[in-house]
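Deviation from plan, reported transparently: zinc ion complex.
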Amino acid sequence: MIYALLTPKWLAAYLFTPILYQIARFLIVKFSPDYLLPASANDPNYAAQFSNAGAGIFHGQIVNDAFCDLILSRIKQHENSDVVNQITQANSMHKNAILTNEIGLEPFISSFTNFFFKKIAPDVLPGALLKTIDSIHSYVVRYGISLDRDLGFHVDDSFLTINLCLNDGFVGSDLQFEGQRCTTHIDTLSGEHERVLIKHKKGKMILHHGKNRHYVETIRKGERFNLIIWCQNKSERAQWFDATKNQKCPDWCSYTS
Ligand SMILES: [Zn+2]
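Because the crystal trials were delayed, the predicted structure below was used instead.
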């Protein structure tokens, strides 16, 4: 008790966290093709494993349950540890998202994203979504009755977002898209062809332009965990902020008057 009183809170949480969790957090796991479904590991025709949902949104299944379960197991270890109270907010939109570097999976996510961009993305995505990745921001969102229940209308700080559902057993919490917009046109109405609703399911991966406006409907039952990877490019980010200052409409904005 004295020890806890004399120890800074963050250090106390670290010292009293179960030792197995501490070890697991720092084991470096890298992505390998063992985490792909057999069809993806054996068939180089990745395009056939994705569908185009319209409005620049693609979805498909290429990773296996082991990929999802590895991330889920780290989240569960994190939830069962004292570190749970030390969460760094992953971004301003979520109270319950966990950064992948807090669960020791940043190397895994980076190696997966690099593999995806080198081997899979050129077969699946249009050129506008194939920029150079300068940085990656990745986190796991947690929706549930006692977690984040929904997510309001927003755009992502990315040129491409990879959104992968990690579990089944929930109802609601669908992802609704409303079309790509620049800052000038961000609050304009969407066209019917831009409104795309995607239902999540374990292992399903959704790929979209970060500035394709979207929101998450309320979860009605269970909990949903999704891995979110924001792929960022310096010049695309600069263009976004320039457009804010100069009220220029970039060519990827799909607003039509
Ligand atoms: Zn615009």
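Confidence is low (pLDDT under 50) at residues 1-12. We consider this an acceptable substitute for the interim report.
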